[in-house]
UniProtKB/TrEMBL annotation:
Protein name: Uncharacterized protein
Record organism: Rhizobium puerariae
Length: 51
């Protein structure tokens, strides 16, 4: 049995997304920058790398 992913996507605008930590509900920061206001394709790439 595999464990669920730690990170997921949620909408944060009309057509933008943010990556958040499912355990804390907080937006993920990479390199000191929040991963928010991302287009879906960019957010999906980050999500794959983080999970």
């Amino acid at each position: 049995m595999t464990s669920p992913n730690r990170f997921d996507l949620r909408k944060d605008g009309f057509d933008t997304y943010e990556i958040f930590d499912v355990r804390t509900g907080r937006t993920v920061s990479v390199g000191g920058k929040p991963r928010a206001k991302l287009k879906l394709d960019e957010a999906d790439i980050y999500l794959d790398l983080l999970n």
